[in-house]
Amino acid sequence: MSEVILETRNLTKKYRNQYALKDVSISIKKNHIYGFIGENGAGKSTLMKIVSGLIFPTSGDMTLMGETDPAAMEKKRKLVGTMIEGPYIYPGYTGRFVLPTRLFIHSSCSANRFIITSQIRYSVS
Q: For the chain, how many structural domains are there in total?
């Protein structure tokens, strides 16, 4: 039997009187590929935002890689990659420029790193 890396139980997200996600229970096993298919407004992005820690559920429970404690889950989230709502590439910039820039903005780099992008050298610290 495969290890469960993500499990939700009755996960709900409500904005005022509108449910963005209601009573979602899923179990995702390690080394399996899953996709969410549904109409606009079905809650696909909301679920991924909750899993990645961008928003928090109104109610329900979640276990991420065996952790239920919020602080422990935050550490585990560093092992999770998500791309919610599509990749945002800024007009006029290449992926070679955007990715290191986003790394710089969203990363907590402890060591000095040098990233060479389109003949421009950035120091990331």
A: 2
